[in-house]
Amino acid sequence: MHDQAEKLRARFQQNPLLGGKRTRLVAVTSGKGGVGKSNFSLNFALGLMEKGQKVVIFDMDIGLANMDVLMGVSPKRHLLNLLETNNSIWDIIEKGPNDLEFIAGGSGFTQILDLDDAQLFHLYDELQALQGYADTIIFDTGAGISKESLTFILSCDEVLLVTTPEPTAITDAYAVIKMIHSRNPHMPIQLVINRVSSPKEGKQTADKLSMVAKRFLGLEVSTLGFVSDDTNVSNAVKRQRPFLLAYPQTRASIGIRSLVDAYIGKHSAFDHGSTPEPTGMRGLLAKMKKWL
């Protein structure tokens, strides 16, 4: 396993096509299901696109992938097709509303963790094409912590942790923070509090999580923002259309756009900064093997 990771790092260093614009990898996760994680990922991506960003979504919710359902799209291919056939990365990218590009979920994601050198290098050669192609790649991971989801989370550049004010959701969100921190104390984690009845409730929920993380883990967890509880969200799900597009002026859409503005503001200097290890698609596979 160590030799395989070393070979990957050498391959990254030898590839002259990986310069230029950086691609930021964002893992969106949650402590439990039912908090609106995938819906957030989808509408957050569309919000970034409204600001001129190029975005690609990977639906990583193994076994419960539903990004295509939220968009009303029937994908023809997923990542497994890239491993089993001669398809290129461009063959498996599907398009949703507003031409949002996504790679549909499927059982193939679990197989990435067991690839041999030839398969891994083939996958790398395809995925590295996205380096510089997209500004942001969002990995919508499964709720909770499985071996597969944790590996992808730790391999990204940052984590957006979605929770709600419900006590069980808060408890499970803290468990995710604790697990991520135990494996990588330097992983940036930002909170997204979904379905809040008021900004006050959102702030209280975020403050509670941040305080516990600071007290017991010595970890500073920042808050990206809040999304209001909104009946138009469920209406949009029934219509299989993102609420940002179906109800652009509803409270949840206003909240998403506020989160997008906050996110872009926090990362305005990203393209000009430096990092201690490869980021974006350049570092994804090497870091995946590191965290196995």
Concise overview:
This protein has 292 residues and is α/β, with parallel strands linked by helices. It contains 14 helices and 8 strands.
Amino-to-carboxy terminus distance: 9 Å
Write down the CATH class: Alpha Beta
Sheet bearing the most strands, described?
8 strands, mixed
CATH superfamily: P-loop containing nucleotide triphosphate hydrolases
Count the beta strands.
8
Fraction of residues in H or I helices: 40-55%
Number of helices: 14
CATH topology: Rossmann fold
Give the overall silhouette. Answer: globular
Mean pLDDT across every amino acid position: 84
Write the element-wise H/E pattern from the N-terminal end onward.
HEHEHHHEEHHEHEHEHEHHHH
Strand arrangement in the largest pleated sheet: 3-4-2-5-1-6-7-8
Note poorly predicted spans: 11-19, 270-276
Structural class: alpha/beta
Total discrete domains: 1
User: Oligomeric form of this entry?
Assistant: single chain
Radius of gyration: 18 Å
CATH architecture: 3-Layer(aba) Sandwich
What percent of residues are in strands? 15-25%
